[in-house]
């Protein structure tokens, strides 16, 4: 793993492969290892950049995660700072959940840095009625640490069938959730809670693929349909038998869709 100073923090990242650049942005409560399978799939054709989002994994640690709340302007600034430090002019961008929210903001704020965009298991707006859910999660992180969020999060992120059939992979993701610094979780969750950019994303001009999990309760396919209807020329793919972490639950389908889109 490598790290670099950018946008006022230390960002952990990894680069592998060769070819055009593609940047991978993970979900809340994960780190760059969420993308292990996709990075291997893309590395023969692309130079794959993965990084830990502010307050997650090895970014801004080991001392402490920077205090929140964070904003998507800040999270986009981290990405651009990383690209600048590595002298990357343009990149494809693949983001899942929070990463997909970062991707939408990046496409709006820095269209000249983006080639193609993949938005997976994400949304352009958190409805007001979901606000108390986010407040509750942040309160748990504050009082119990992120270990208190593991069971509820895994229940939303994976179907029961996957959890029964893949206990080791479920446990790996559970360990990532538990290890997330509470300050990092709360900082990012505060940005997510305030998300409302549906009215703006019709300005995105990057070719866009939107991926949804058919069984995702947190960002159901209807939220992806809103994004697709707003971004000109965007295409939707719904992965069967997948909940929120579709790249983990159905990696072969997810990786095939992403690779075909980026190569096309």
Outline the structure in words.
This protein is α/β, with parallel strands linked by helices and 264 residues long. The protein has one domain (2-263): 3-Layer(aba) Sandwich (Rossmann fold), CATH 3.40.50. It has 11 helices and 8 strands. The chain has helices at residues 36-42, 72-85, 98-109, 131-144, 150-157, 160-165, 167-179, 182-193, 221-230, 246-249, 251-263; strands at residues 2-6, 9-17, 21-25, 47-51, 91-96, 114-120, 208-213, 235-239. Strands 1-2-4-3-5-6-7-8 form an 8-stranded mixed beta sheet, sandwiched between helices. Helix 3 (98-109) links the parallel strand 5 (91-96) and strand 6 (114-120). The chain is globular, with a radius of gyration of 17 Å. The mean pLDDT is 96.
Describe the main β-sheet briefly. Answer: 8 strands, mixed
Shape: globular
CATH topology: Rossmann fold
Number of helices: 11
Radius of gyration: 17 Å
Assign the CATH class: Alpha Beta
- Low-pLDDT segments, ≥5 res: none
**What's the count of strands?**
8
Distance between the termini: 30 Å
Instruction: Give the fraction of residues assigned to helices.
Output: 40-55%
Order of helices and strands: EEEHEHEHEHHHHHEHEHH
Which strand order does the major sheet show? 1-2-4-3-5-6-7-8
Number of domains: 1
Proportion of beta-strand residues: 15-25%
């Amino acid at each position: 793993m490598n790290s670099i100073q950018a946008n006022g923090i230390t960002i952990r990242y990894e680069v592998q492969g060769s070819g055009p650049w593609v940047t991978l942005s993970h979900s809340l409560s994960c780190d760059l290892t969420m993308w292990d399978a996709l990075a291997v799939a893309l590395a023969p054709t692309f130079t794959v950049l993965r990084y830990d989002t502010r307050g997650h994994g090895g970014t801004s640690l080991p001392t402490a995660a920077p205090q929140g709340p964070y904003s998507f302007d800040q999270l986009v600034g981290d990405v651009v700072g990383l690209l600048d430090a590595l002298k990357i002019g343009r990149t494809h961008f693949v983001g899942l959940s929070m990463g997909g929210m970062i991707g939408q903001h990046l496409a709006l704020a820095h269209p000249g840095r983006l080639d193609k965009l993949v938005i997976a298991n994400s949304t352009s707006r958190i409805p007001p009625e979901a606000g108390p859910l986010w407040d509750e999660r942040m309160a748990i992180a504050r009082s119990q640490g992120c270990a208190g969020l593991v069971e509820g999060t895994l229940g939303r992120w994976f179907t029961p069938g996957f959890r029964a059939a893949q206990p080791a992979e479920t446990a790996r993701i559970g360990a990532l959730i538990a290890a997330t610094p509470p300050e990092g979780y709360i900082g990012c969750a505060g940005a997510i809670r305030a998300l409302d950019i549906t009215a703006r994303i019709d300005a995105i001009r990057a070719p866009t693929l939107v991926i949804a999990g058919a069984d995702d309760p947190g960002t159901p396919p209807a939220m992806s349909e809103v994004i697709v209807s707003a971004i000109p020329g965007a295409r939707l793919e719904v992965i069967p038998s997948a909940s929120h972490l579709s790249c983990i639950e159905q990696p072969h389908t997810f990786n095939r869709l992403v690779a075909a889109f980026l190569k096309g």
